[in-house]
Amino acid sequence: MSTLTLEVEEDILREAERVAEQRNTTVDRLVHEYLRSLLGEQERRREGWERFRRMMRENPIEVGERTWTREDLYER
């Protein structure tokens, strides 16, 4: 494991320590879990886009010819 040094405002650090104590953990562990969660979120987003692209390749959508004009849209 590597060491990471952060500069954090004192009031934020105090609040983070309170949260960590309530969760029976450490600020270090909170940061570690947050970073892991952030990376997992990016991976899920990447996988979602890949599934979307695959779906669009495998199931192309036919839209058809446009039968309306811009003016039609404003006639409401």
Mean pLDDT: 92
User: How do the SSEs run, as a string of H and E?
Assistant: HHH
The number of helical elements comes to 3
Inertia-based shape: elongated
Describe this protein's structure:
- The chain is mainly alpha-helical and 76 residues long.
- The chain has a domain at 10-60.
- Helix content is 64%, strand content 0%.
- The longest helix is centred in the middle third of the chain and has 32 residues, at 27-58.
Short note summarizing the structure:
By secondary structure, the chain is mostly helical. 64% of the residues lie in helices and 0% in strands. The longest helix has 32 residues, at 27-58.
Topology:
Blueprint: H1 10-22, H2 27-58, H3 70-73
